[in-house]
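I am going through a labmate's work and have reached the protein record below. What it holds is a sequence and that sequence's fold in token form. Please read both lines and tell me whether the tokens look consistent with the sequence. Do not assume that whoever made the record got everything right. Thanks in advance; the entry in question is below.
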Amino acid sequence: MNASSHFRRLCSLRPSQFSLVAAVLFATFLAANSLVATNARGDDPPPTADKPAADKPLAEQTPQSVLVTFEHEEKMVAIRLDQESQMAVLESCFPNYRSRPAGEGQVLWKPKYEIYFNFARGQTVRVTVSSNSRYWTTGQGAIELRGGYFSNFVHELLKEKARPRE
């Protein structure tokens, strides 16, 4: 059937049938127009209780893994963390690192440690730590390291990595 046959068929309807068809078409038009207008405004879909981690803001996500790299005895060492307890200890050293805070002054030191916090959908936050383990940055000024246990924590990770696996 082509468009002209549809038009002839529509014109041959009785008034009661025509008003029913018109009402259905009008309702369909309103629903489609409402959907297009909502998407054009960029409204977010309604929140759901089981929202996947990748859809949450970075501040609400938990890293999937953390990679700590540094030079030790003239060799590059890379230690991957995926245990929540270890990642939580490391995160506590860098408050608000996910927002990439700006520190004081310029970073004039060469970093000894590079830490990569890996999140869903390929998002990564890179934190560097000074050679004396007193300052850290995400690239915008130096921030004093919280607590005095960062070096000890990395040392323990290194010892754990060196242990023979069973």
Observations:
- The helical segments are 3-11, 15-41, 84-92, 150-162.
- Residues 130 and 150 are 11 Å apart (CA to CA).
